[in-house]
Design goal:
Layout lengths: L1 E5 L2 E5 L26 H21 L8 E6 L4 E10 L6 E2 L3 E2 L8 H11 L4 H27 L7 H6 L20 H7 L7 E8 L4 E5 L2 E2 L2 E2 L4 H4 L15 E5 L1 H7 L3 H8 L3 E13 L5 E3 L5 E5 L1 E5 L2 E3 L3 H25 L3 E3 L4 E5 L12 E5 L8 E3 H5 L9 H13 L3 H27 L1 E3 L6 E5 L5 E6 L5 E4 L3 H7 L10 E2 L1 H26 L5 H16 L9 H7 L2 E5 L1 H6 L15 E5 L5
Parallel strand pairs: 17-23, 24-25
Antiparallel strand pairs: 1-2, 2-4, 3-4, 4-5, 4-6, 7-11, 7-12, 8-18, 9-10, 12-13, 13-14, 14-19, 15-16, 18-19, 20-22, 21-24, 22-23, 26-27
Helix pairs in contact: 1-2, 1-3, 2-3, 11-12, 12-14, 12-15, 15-16
Length: about 600
Amino acid sequence: MKKRSSKGSALISFPSSENRARPGAHETVPRQQPPAESDPHSAAQAATVENLLRCWFRETGAPAPEDRILRVPLPASGTALLVPVEYWSPTGRHRLGAPCLAGAPGPVDAVTVAALLAREAPGAPEDAVDLVARVADSVRRTTVFIADRRARPADPADLFLAAEQALVHGHPLHPTPKSREGLSESELRRYSPELRGSFALHWMAVAPAVLRTDSAWTERGRPVTGPRLTARLGPERELPDLPDGYAALPLHPWQAQELRRRPEVAALLDAGLLRDLGVRGRPWSPTSSVRTVHRTAAPAMLKLSLGLRITNSRRENLRKELHRGVEVHRLLRRGLAARWQAAHPGFDIVRDPAWLAVDGPDGAPVRGLDVVIRHNPFSPSDDVSCVAGLVAPRAHTPASRLADIVHRLSARTGQPYDTVAADWFLRYLEQVVRPVLWLDGEAGIALEAHQQNTLLLLDADGWPTGGRYRDNQGYYFRASHRAELDARLPGIGEQSDTFVSDEVADERFTYYLAINNVLGLVGALGSQRLADERLLLGVFRRFLSKAAAGPRRMRSSLPARLLDSPVLRCKANLLTRMWGLDELVGPVDTQSVYVTLDNPLHQ
C-alpha cells in the first residue's frame, strides 16, 4: 500500500488484496464485482452508489481513510456505512466498493444509500423523497443503457455523433446523472443518445404577429433571417406550403405533446397564431445533452426546449440565453475572434448565431417554444469528443476511450503509460485551458467550460490538437470589463443578463474549468491507473505558474488563485439535488449549492 496524505489531499492505492489493511472482525464488507463482470443492473447499482458516495465525501469534507474501509457515521439513522476504498483520489474521483451497514450482512443498494444520506442533510422532506425517486429512476435508465450498449456495441460512422452518445454512465459526481422522469420506455428508446435514438422533429407554423427571432447567421456574406432560417435545415420539401409570413418552428416531439396542455399554447393554436404541422422530415439524433439534436452533414444543430428534468434542471431555453448566444457570436465577429485565434488558432466557440421563439398576444415570452440554431462545424470524419465522453467508463469495460489512446500511444512510442499520460495532459492544457484563460484575461469572459461543454479535437494518433466550447447558457461577463465589452458591442448584456460580479465569475470559473474539467481529467487518469495524480498535479502547477507570469494585460486571475488559495469553492450536486434547486431558475449566484474544498494544488 502506498499512501500520501496532507490536509484534504491524499492518494491511496490498493493494488492487491494481499497488501490491504484488514478491517476489524465486526466491520467486514462484501467484495464488489468489477463493472465489466457484473450484469447490467448490478453495474448500474454500483456506478450510482459510487456517485452518491463520491458526492457525499466531497460535500462533507470526508477525510482519507486510514485503511481500506471508510466509516460514514449516520447519526440520524443510528448506524454507519462501511465503504471499501479501492482508490482514494486527491481530486475526488475515488473508486469504491459496495458499502454495507455496520453490523448488517450484505451490501446496500443505491436507493437505500440515497435515503440514508438524505436523512443526514438539511432540507424539506419532499426534496429527500424526490432525490430517492430520481436515484431509482437513474439506476433503472442506466441499466437499460448498459444492456443495450453491450448488445449493440458498434458506433456510428459519424465520429462526433459516436462521441456524443458515449456517456452511458454520465457525470461521475452527480447523484442522478441518468434520471429521465417523464419518459415512457418507448420514448426512452427514441430520445436517448445512450440508446442511439433518432426521431423526426415536430413542426409548427408561427404567425408573424407572435414570431420573435434574431439572427447573425450568414451564408456567402448575406444574412439568413426569419422564415429562411429553418428552411435551410431541409424540411421545406416535406412541409406543406406555409401561410404568408409564417415561419416553420421545429420542436422536440415530446415537448410538442407537453405544450398542448399549457393554456397559453392552446390559446395560440385556437387563434390560428400557431398551426400544428405534425411530425415531418428525416430523423435527427440526440446529443449528450439529450435536447440538442444533430444530423450528419446538416449545416446546423438545434438546441430544443425540453421540459424534462435532466440532472438539475428542466431544459427549456430561456429568452436571455437566446440573446446571449447571438450576442457572443456578434462580439467575436467584431475583432475579438481574430485576435483570440491569432494567439490560439486551434480553439474556438461553437456559435449559436440565431434563434426562433414565440411571444403571446400580450408580448410576453411563451416558454417552451424557443429553439437555438447552432452552427455545426464538424464533418463526420472529424475526431472530436466532449471531454466527458472521452474519459467515461464504457458499458463493457471500466476503461475509457482515453485509456485506449494512452495504451496505444505507449505501445507506439515505447514510453510508460504515466509518461504518455503526462505528455497528453500537458498538450491538453496548452490546446484547451490556455485559450480559455486568454479569453478570461483579455476580454473578461469566463466560460462554463465543464467536461461536457468542452470539445476536444484529436489527431490520427489521439493527441490533442485543438478545442471548442459550446453552450449559450455558460458565459460570465465580468463586471470589471463592462466598459470594454460595451465599447466592442454597444448594449451588450442588456437583454442577455450576462454580467456578474467578479466574485461570482471567479467562483464559477474555478469550479467549471479547474475542478470539473481539469481536476476531473486528473482524477480520471489516476483512477484508471494511467498516471499518478501527484505527477499530473505537478504538471498542472507548472503550467499555472507560467500562465500566472504571463503579460499582465492578458492575465486571468484563475492561475494565481489556484496556486495560492488553500481552499476552492465547488458546486455540490448532491446538496443542490437534496434542496430541490433548479439551476435555470433565479439569480445566478443562488441557483446551486457551493461548498468549500481543500485545494489539492496548494502546497
